[in-house]
Amino acid sequence: MSEVKIFKVTIDNITVEVPAGTTILQAARQVGGEVAPPAMCYYTPLEGSGGKCRTCLVEVAAGSTADPRPMPKLVASCRTTVMDGMVVKNITSDRVRDARAGVVEFLLLNHPLDCPVCDQAGECHLQDLSYEHGGEGTRYEFKRRTFEKHNLGPYIQLHMTRCILCYRCVFTADQLTQKRVHGVLDRGDHAEIATYIEKSLDNDFIGNVIDVCPVGALTDKTFRFKNRVWFTKPVDAHRDCDKCCGKVTLWQRGDEVLRVTARKDQWGEIMNTEEGKTGWICNECRFEKKQTSDWTIEGATRIARHSVISANHYVDAEKPKEFINDVMGGRSPKLLMDIHDVSDVNDPSVDLSKIDGPATGETFNKTNPK
Amino acid sequence: MQLTNRAKPVDRRPMNAIERLYLWNILKGMMITIRHFFKKKATIQYPEQKRPFSQVFRGLHILNRDEEGRERCTACGLCAVACPAEAITMEAAEREPGEENLYREEKYAARYEINMLRCIFCGYCEEACPKDAIYLSQTFAPANYGRSGFIYKKQDLLIPNPVEDPEGFKKAQGEIARK
Fold it and tell me: What is the ipTM of this complex?
């Protein structure tokens, strides 16, 4: 085989050169910023993903240099490969904006919008998508669909009402584990993620379905309701793990490790490790290593400035020197009130990271409130 | 330098005999005093009488309940992240079976505290709340000698339960209902 041909493709008036066989979405991501179409179902490390959610629809204004006719319909950019001289319109096309608003409305038809309760809020792709591309309200007047609750075992919490049926978790289980025990059952409006016979997901790598889920349908039971994402501080850390790469992001509060996830890039996808492999992490790293001493901290994770997660987090901030002791001749100032004497919140004797599931009323009532 | 031409030179001539009696000037001053006896008073007898607050007054917070008496707050943390003074802290817990009459949603605030020493009563928490749960009422924090009295816990903030105390609930909600 000769070397791979390089195609020139113009996306939103920006020309990039990509090897043949690249999808429009990947080419647009090379440009970056707003030009990259959003993707809810496509996930680069997962083979065969994409083509389902239709949020990445783009307009192809000219097919190629050889055949410059425009494509009649909007195409899914995650599954359409580029041609030489292709002209693609994403945010510069009114048709695309209009279609995307429609897609968002459809995705939100049955979405419960329980973001105040949902653990994914703050890092949810559906939230981002509806803020950027959605309308203000819905025209849907009927009851939203609900499901019987399925138990997926001690680690993973399933909220089927939030699911948008992107199939990412199905691909993850197919490609990462030997035996997939969950899938999408039924059709159409009744389609749901389930295990058919009540079976818990307990493969070593099944925890990765939490990371790939674009919404809050699959969440971490060990983190459930413990804190909001934007109050926890993400730090990069690693440990020697014989099963996985061991490179993770810890979500800390003080010294408590409330949650462990794989490292994600700017598109919300799991980053590659230095060896070029996808940085999937195993269940042991994700669910059982909830102590700072288990990890080697590398430093604060870079979070986009506009993300709510970066609110009140100061990276590389220089802390000014405390002068009060010098001024007072070595004495410490008199503390008029220690907040822990009065406050019940953040009680040092309640360590949330040590509880397996979500905290309940009992957790807080065990220690007598002052 | 003169800024305007309205300046009046001070009369520094020595006073004559009648002027030295001050009688006229005293009467002039007394007239002003006596006139105020018949005017509307500017002050009120405070603890017995109280002035109505403005419709948009922002005072102490209350945590709202729904008509069935369930707590509306789900500990979503939006008030805390909106708070510029970082006065609000909370801890969430999951609602267990049998607690459906206490909490409206599957997650609730097990602990909820507002540090009134930090609070600047800006009302951002009220604006941020997606669940209609926190409101600023038309009362203010009573004065206290110690600081510990200003940490308001969930029990201090919650309004009365409409099932047990419908009148207290209505009274506490009165100002919200008008909004």
Answer: 0.83
